[in-house]
Protein 1
Amino acid sequence: MGSGRGGRRGAFFVKFVAMKNIFLFLILLLTNFYTSQATHNSGGIITYRHISGTTYEATVTTYTIAGSPSDTDALEFYWGDGSMDTIPFVNDTITSDFIKSSFIGTHTYFSDGSYVLHVQLENWSSGIINLPNSVNVPFYLETFLLIDNSVGNNTSACTSTEPIFSGFPNEKFTYNPTFYDTDGDCLSFELINTLDSNGSTVNGYTIPVGVSIDPINGEFTWDNVPAIGKYAFTIKVNEFRNGIYVGYVLINLNIEISGIHEYQTTFGSLLWNTDNAGNYVYTIEPGDSIQLNVYFANTPGGGPPMGVIPFGEPFLFQNTASFNLINQNGNFGSYYSVTYSFKWKPEIARCAPYFVCFRGDQLIGGPKDLTLMIFVRDQTTTNCDSTCNNILSISETPETSTFTLFPNPASTTLTIQSSTTNQQTLKIINVQGQLVTLSVVEGQQTTIDISQLPTGLYHLLLEDNQGRVAAKKLVIAR
């Protein structure tokens, strides 16, 4: 768990002669107060980057509630190869809503292989509605790393926004963590159950009705947010390269629903290109420019001035995009609108889209996120449809499905645990849509040999005798 960082956890040392019992009581009271405040984790993620050879650097980023800084100067971090290191605290970033703490360590693996890196902290913050007894639930994070010389070096996906935010009841809530991958790998997104200390679903955890995530652009949506309170969610970000599954990261999120939103806001009608799913998307060539106007306003009835803030890979590195206010109308207490101009001239073609998020309502609560995907393609990216689109088209039944898989990722054998003893048909399909395994499952637990299947992502279907089909994703990594 790590030891206390001097001056942060509230370890008090008092030299006294008289009134011994009173001083001891005050010391214990203050220490317990700071300890209880300091362990309330609300969000977090593990990311990694390649250094050289089989050496990788991992960063654990945690978010605690405002006023309760990280209480440790080091974390016990597990590298997935049987080794554990104590990785040091690096820095804090303090805002009015949360404290962001970073811990960084470096490790050299002895060989190629698949590794699940993980860390366990003391607990979640208290009072989370969909995470019963949350203050006593361990805060667990993990990420998956594939080291394979034939695939190449890998750096994990990273997020360009923070996972702590607020919303209002009886409104539609949209949020995009706006992930990016510096290697240009394809990403897909899943909403999964929050995990406990052994990597399984937290007992009693539920995903509220109306919550979903777009598997292609990563936009998290909650239709008609219900009761006031705090909620926890976990998003899994999968990473693929040339059709091969090379890693994933999990990000724990915290949403606090509070108050009544006095002013309704919305993005104006956009005449942007959309795909078949209704996502905003553009395809351009390297060196071409894209320019779009973003319009945001409150509904008639008044409201304070507001703004739109952009996030995403085009704003992070060389040849950055611009986002400038070009028009504003109205005054406080009246109808108010703002218009921004987004401009970008990308230089590098790749299969994976660039994600851009425009966050409105930032100044008076939110968020309301608008997501844009930009594909940059040329003659070098002709195989993109087969390497990205097939992967993104693989869907999965909800976590309430009637069967579970373990281990996942798997290497040589796979165990299927079902809620029924009836005979079922098992199909494993690769990302090209080809059936690679067909077998019969009998009983509540069956183990099959997958040692002859190549590494990568698969779609596993389990069909009962009434024709009902449940689906899950399977990762094979060695």
Protein 2
Amino acid sequence: MPIDINHLQYCAPDEFGLGHRGRGLAYFADAYYFPNQDITLAYLVNYGADAKSELKPVFLEFRNKVVNLIMQK
């Protein structure tokens, strides 16, 4: 069975995470490992925003702020 690995790339070549994201009408779930920072990030949001939802931009802002903290920005 193949493994689905997503590559989460940010501003610089050393700013990336490897992991998997899950989206649905009822949840968000992400798990990423940032090897250059030796940090693992995992979260589950019990509210879906894969469809038209006012929560989607809030979730994306949350994720970007957390990753910026990991990258020490």
